[in-house]
Amino acid sequence: MAAESNVTKVTSRLRERMRVADAGDQAFTLVLGDRIAPEVVDTVTALDRQISALHQAGGLSGLIETVPTFCSLTVIYDPLQTSRQQLLAELEQLPPADTLRSSAASRLWRLPVCYEGDCGPDLEATAATLGISVETLIDQHRQSEYRVYMLGFLPGFPFMGDLPPALQLPRRTEPRLRVPPGSVAIAGALTAIYPSESPGGWHLLGQCAVPLFDPARPQPSLLQPGDRVGFTAVNAAEHRRLQQAAEARALDLAAFSEAEVAS
Amino acid sequence: MSERLSEIEVRSAGAYASIQDGGRRGLRRVGVPWSGVLDAALMKIANALVGNQATAPVIEHFDGGLLLKALHGRVRVAVAGQADIDITGEQGVQRVVCWRSVALNAGETLRIGALRAGRLVVVAVAGLQVPETLGSASTYARAGIGKPLAVGDRLSAQFSEASDFLLPEPPTDDDVVIRVVAGPQAGHFLDDALATLCGAPFTVTDQADRMGVRLQGPLLEHRSDTHKDIISDATVPGSMQVPGSGQPIVLLADAQTAGGYPKIATVISADLGRLANRRAGETLRFQLVGVDAAEHAARSHAENLARLIASIRRLPGDGSVDLEALYNSGLISGPISGFESEE
């Protein structure tokens, strides 16, 4: 009985820092905030890395995987090997995520984007809606550095932010049935790249030839949660060259990763 | 015991068929769902009947119509589910039953006919060889991992001379109750919404596939318009999301890994396979349970399945038993005299 009351006590300490939301008998979600902001996702990333380190050190037996999102971290487990109560008690060993600056490095990517011609079908309409020139739209989009908040929607689809305030606008009222793969797009405070063809409601500004998702790679997703991304404008000829190299699987992906940066 | 490589050809994929196994893990963080069979119990039983590992790749098939022909060599197969099946060969058409293994000789064709209940069957093939991508043989075409089976597809299998096996007491599913745990955004709904969810039947619609099942029933009302969207968070198989329409969608193995609709509940893992196997027009009743009870149900479900698999019996070698007659006469229940045990 003593052990049981101990579990309750430490669990309640965990809950002072975050809310534990029920997600069935093989997952729970640790809620760390209620808005899309770098400081919130920093906390999510830090907690995710702590959990990963604890798991790799032999702890958290029965953990299957974690899923970081904008404001929360979902912990997925095998109920035949562990329980929610057991995992929450183990997570109590971790220092508070909101006071922790992760020492792990994130990658900084410099991805080539062609903003010319057919590559950016929404450039003019988007610039008009925003009340800026197409040149300003492109310059502001490529001059910012974005944080990969999370991946989802499609395999390898990165939700990145924040856009400069002058570029923020709601989604298209009429979603497209087919957004071409490689489309670089914006909506709200976010920018993204469509890894594969899909319906989509974001505004299409350009095309990126670097494949974001390839199941033949050991790590199929180019980008990971917490990575940073900047864009380099390339002309149509260079974009075609990159596309051909990508199709021939001759692109050196590491060449687009500029540096390891401490987050 | 001799082993030979055999080949089977898909002569018709019927309504839909794909290779699935226990699924891939560890990539939800980059948007890759687990995939894998929708009802793991069917996979584990079918694989046990042909002597495969429990989570080895199988053919998961919706709504009947699948035709598989043994091209050369013999192929041992077993079908888990409720379907009329037969084998066509030189001897004409021979009816066989589900829940047993049977060898197809070269030139013979297995046909999955109409389903008697549910919408899923699983066909296990002894020694089925399917390459893995990212740790699993499961098809997930959205990410360019495999494609649904199509006419002319060929699959290799390792045939071994072995006995055939039978599951004496096939599982039945008359239970309309599906258990749920309150969802991560249950608070986005009116106070009585969970009671509404669990207080009236919901009907399975025809909008149901490997990604999810759309249900129809009384409106599950959001607290306000601002509660109809959330900042996207992670989903799991079983997540029940409710878009603005107030009608729930239960996410399954191929569903996207994150979503922006509030989730009122999560179907527990022990009951998710049964839900996925429901036909359009069938009704369900949801029952709210706590997390502890849901975890306990997962363990009970696994124990019951292990017991069921342990009850599998070897069939006599001469094939003289008329199984169809045995099943129809209701004589099969428990270990059958004259059938050796697996040990």
Automatic annotation (TrEMBL), chain A:
Q: What is this protein called?
A: Allophanate hydrolase subunit 1
Q: Which Pfam families match?
A: CT_C_D
Annotated keywords: ATP-binding, Hydrolase, Nucleotide-binding
Enumerate the GO terms in the molecular function aspect. Answer: ATP binding; hydrolase activity
**PANTHER family reported in the protein's UniProt record:** 5-OXOPROLINASE SUBUNIT B (PTHR34698:SF2)
Question: Does this entry carry the keyword ATP-binding?
Answer: yes
Q: Which InterPro entries match?
A: CT_C_D (IPR003833), Cyclophilin-like_dom_sf (IPR029000), PxpB (IPR010016)
Q: Which SUPFAM superfamilies match?
A: Cyclophilin-like, PH0987 N-terminal domain-like
- Domain (Carboxyltransferase): give its ranges: 18-223
Establish whether keyword Secreted is in the entry: no
Which organism is the protein's source? Candidatus Accumulibacter meliphilus
UniProtKB/TrEMBL annotation, chain B:
Source organism per entry reads: Candidatus Accumulibacter meliphilus
Q: Which InterPro entries match?
A: CT_A_B, Cyclophilin-like_dom_sf, PxpC
Highest taxon of source: Bacteria
Pinpoint the Carboxyltransferase domain residues: 29-304
Provide the GO MF annotations for this entry.
Answer: ATP binding; hydrolase activity; lyase activity
Q: Which UniProt keywords apply?
A: ATP-binding, Hydrolase, Lyase, Nucleotide-binding
- Read off the SMART domains from this record: AHS2
Record's protein name: Urea amidolyase
